[in-house]
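Comment thread on ticket #2218

A.B. wrote:
> Attaching the input chain for the structure job we discussed in standup.
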Amino acid sequence: MVSQAGGMSGVHESTENLLKLLPANFNEKAANSHTWGGSASKDRTPTSLSADMFDPPTSSKLTKRNQTKEPKFREPVHRENPRTQRDLKEAFTQNSKRETPRRGSMSWAARPTCDLKTLKKFLPILTWLPNYDRSKSLRVDIIAGLVIAFMVIPQGMAYGMLAGMPVEYGLYSSMVPPLIYSIFGGAAHLSLGTNAPISILVADSVTAAIPTDTDCSDDPNSEDCQRILDATLLICLLSGFFYMAFMIMRFSIITSFVPDPVLSGFTTGVSMIIITSNTKHVFGVTTKRGMIWEVWQSIIEELPNTNWTAFTIFLLSFISLFAIKEINRKYKSKIPVPIPEQLVVLVVCTAIVAVFDLDVPKVKEIPSGLRAPALMSFHDVNLLIQPALVCSIVTYILTFNVAKALGETNGYEVDGDQEFVANSIAAICGSLTGSYLPSGSFSRSALVGEITGKDGTPLHNVFSVFVVALVVMFLTPLLYHMPKAIMASIIFVALKNMIKIATARKLYYVSKQEWTLWMISFVSTTLLGVTYGILISIVASLGLLVKFQARPATRVMGLLGGEGGLTSKYGTVCLDIKEFAAAKELYGIKIFKFEADLHFANKDWFDQKIRKMDERCQWDRLYAVIIDCSAINTIDLTCVKLLERIHRRYQEKNVKLLFANWKAQSMQKVFEGSGLYETIGEDNFFLKMRGALEVGLARARKRQYEEESRCMDEEDFEAMNQRGDDWIGSSEHNPRPNPIDSVL
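C.D. wrote:
> Ran it. Output below, let me know if you need it in another format.
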């Protein structure tokens, strides 16, 4: 039951009509102290509904109340805990007159200029280098730099070959980009350079855009190889420009649209492509280029021509790599620095091939010295814009995820926009010095973090680059006899951490939708190639996101503990009645929860679910419907019209429509501009669920009393009043349960 005292009203029934329906034992003073609109009465108690509302009233009080006139305007209400949208609006009325500075009114003299803080944000090296602690960081940085250099030398050559370039270009890619990242990058432990997934992505993009009969592994001096080199370097240059454009557009949000299952399926599909493209080095044969099934068909046809010496070298080096890895793992606490298994296997196998002059496919001559900066040919630039765009997006996502993981492990934040700057400058400068698209390596970066800990700095890249530069300038003649089978073994061992079959198995039992994303990413990448695979995967992720937004979850809620939950000391808790047996619905009141923002894409779904809830109502009477808005942060104008239609529909059925957990400020302008507050009434929008439940319960009690009164004749009604019985629920004329008696 709701009263209107002094103009303070939460429900729009007039006081005179309500009083005609009240029994003789109704206490006006108790009811007057529980007005919905926010009366500032000193008699107000914390409990909005209680049994003292039905104590016998005095006639003088009723007479005085009936004579009270409605004021023309509501008086301002200033409450620390506003109850409804009207209360909240009035509480902030006095602040609306305060003058606020206009935007853009700052004078040019007072505008902020580029200061040292801004410069440090653009150049992170100005933050860590002046504070460099040689006693803590210098030793671990030197050790990490040497260890990473011993990994980068064999990996760089293997991944350079994987990218479809001569092996020395993998070493070029491990020099300039890490140095640039040390200046502009925000992840202290990141090792930027070559990476298996990006290597095959670049090779696949060049192959799809510029088909050739041969590649650089067949003849490094051919015209086809030179065209492939120019295209690969041009993709790196274009990606650098794309990075800068992404930074200007604040495009770092793209990382949110590629979930972990997609990345996992993508890397597993890439692993299948890497295995396919390097199997020819395992058997020492030459195969055709093409789709994955065409390459395997060519491998099967060439099996009779297998070079068994090359196969033996591959098998022994593959086993040796795993054996040394196991030694490092087992004796980790006893070995101060891990054994560089890739460098050891490379040196030993190369020495064996050189001493015994074994007839196996070799790397042969590698140019000595650093590559002079030079521009590549722009002949195929029109064909490479789309592949460069895809490569830049995928590379940034993988690199930023590695940097973010390192930051979370070592306690620092990585700025997505600053990573665009670092990767952009690294790609542009790297393309001019022989580097293909650089990316972060998770295995090398994790090793840097393990060696240096929180004392590590980007200076480890300087020591690593110094060692690689020495090898490129003076030691490349020693690599003439290096067999390609070793490169294949190094790549295959590195794939161990990229194949995520266990992740797919886990997703199958946990989430079928995410397992579907994994399978789409894996199958499309394996069969159609890296470029189309990642595009299809991103589209599938966006499609699933749209599905979640257009068809979000909906719930019919119940009050935890039933009727007694409203007065519980733990507060009002509403839960899904299908999932929690302790959540009970209140008779005649439905609570509907929508688990998403309300917009044009899901408005029909919202209306459909509301109608279905009404159709499945288990009672013959429905008194109030409460919409729980705790998950609704925004509502567009299209859905405002929908709410108006729902309000009119319930009005025709004499059902009260209420809104609980209302996010007032986020939707203030939309609702005031559309006039929905005037249509539905501001007092029907509650900031908490408790207020909506109390109004709904009062509405249900009033309606039940009206129905009960129509079922009783005048003599029974007078007899009930004389006995002092409760006016609803326990009489023989009302067999329905009365769920609100215990609360009232």
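A.B. wrote:
> Thanks. Noting for the ticket: Residues 381-410 form the longest helix (30 residues).
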